[in-house]
Design goal:
Blueprint (H helix, E strand, L loop, with lengths): L1 H26 L4 H11 L4 H29 L3 H17 L6 H14 L4 H25 L6 H27 L7 H27 L8 H27 L10 H19 L6 H25 L9 H19 L5
Helix pairs in contact: 1-2, 1-6, 2-6, 3-4, 3-5, 3-6, 4-5, 7-8, 7-9, 7-10, 8-9, 9-12, 10-11, 10-12, 11-12
């Protein structure tokens, strides 16, 4: 549904941009094809991206047009003209780092060879006019028509990431407590999926930041957006601590049965808090945190004294407890301004 909504608004704006661009060009007796191509590729997820890439695509298209005019003047409509126009356009755009406009510029250079027959200089300036028309129309449409708002998609993305994080954390910690942990495919797949989801939501946040330059969020909307950004940071850090465990091999841990049960219960409570926001209870969460902290400090001296085989490294029990305590702290910060 989210992808359909985002794609649907972009399709509508592209269609409107094409119509208006072609209509203006026909009124001015200009060939609309080049302007339409420019309008199509200038519609971006945000107005800011449209403007930035439009600034690059205009000179790139001018370069392609200039080479088309130059080589058709020298060699006429021949295979050599197509080749040289395309190759020189690509090379120049690369040299000037106009990467965002390279494809449009190359298509322009090749297409112009076919339509230039007389008055090559006039064709060059008409081409600049059509490029400008396509850029301006598509940018204006993107600015005023169906301005994108990604906050709902960001909120939904955070909920999905938190849910998957709870599943991953529960899986990894319980495997470790049951002495079944290895660097296995299932755990890797869980963390890889999480990483992709986090990256997608980070991209939506970037889009919203860029869009806010032209359609600012105000009041509670801005406060909510800032909260989303902080929550994603917490989820990214939780993911980091889970990965630390996934890619670490542990020897058999030696907790007493009572401590192992307490840790398992704490893991389950933490995972439920992430999977179901309504299940988060701050007081209960802090009680579990204090219990884990007591286990950590009570076991530190005994573990490090008894295990002489870890002269320079932390024993597995302390590594596991450290990661779990870190995640517990991050979960509370995740809900700090929600509850």
């Amino acid at each position: 549904m989210k992808l359909f909504k985002l794609a649907g608004s972009r399709i509508v704006k592209t269609g409107v941009s094409i119509f208006i661009t072609a209509w203006i060009c026909i009124l001015l007796d200009w060939p609309p094809v080049f302007a339409v191509i420019t309008a199509i590729v200038t519609i971006e997820p945000t107005v800011s991206d449209s403007i930035k890439k439009g600034i690059v695509r205009f000179p790139a298209s001018a370069i392609g047009s200039a080479y088309a005019v130059l080589f058709i003047s020298l060699f006429g409509n021949s295979p050599l003209t197509y080749t040289l126009a395309a190759v020189f356009t690509i090379a120049t755009c690369f040299r000037l780092k106009l990467h965002a406009g390279l494809l449009v510029a190359t298509l322009t250079a090749v297409a112009m060879v076919e339509v230039i027959h007389t008055n090559v200089l006039m064709s060059f300036f008409i081409r600049l006019g059509t490029t400008t028309t396509g850029l301006v129309v598509s940018t204006v449409v993107n600015l005023f028509m169906m301005p994108p708002d990604y906050t709902k998609e960001i909120s939904q993305g955070l909920e999905r990431i938190a849910y998957r994080t709870g599943i991953a954390a529960e899986k990894v910690f319980h495997d470790i407590l049951d002495d079944q942990h290895q660097v296995i495919v299932v755990e890797q797949e869980l963390t890889d999926q999480l990483d992709k989801m986090i990256h997608q939501t980070e991209q939506l946040i970037r889009f919203q930041k860029e869009e806010s330059k032209y359609h600012p969020l105000i009041g509670s909307e801005q406060a909510q957006f800032e909260r989303y950004q902080k929550q994603l940071v917490q989820l990214r850090l939780i993911h980091y601590h889970i990965e630390n465990l996934v890619y670490t091999s542990f020897d058999t841990n030696e907790w007493p049965s009572e401590e192992r049960t307490s840790i398992a219960n704490a893991v389950t409570e933490m995972a439920q808090s992430l999977k179901h926001p309504g299940a988060f209870n701050r007081e209960k969460h802090r009680e579990q945190y204090e219990r884990l902290t007591d286990i950590f400090w009570d076991d530190t001296e005994a573990i490090t004294t008894a295990k002489k085989q870890y002269p320079t490294n932390l024993p597995p029990e302390l590594k596991i407890l450290y990661e779990l305590l870190s995640i517990y702290n991050l979960v509370e910060r995740y809900y700090q301004r929600v509850k």
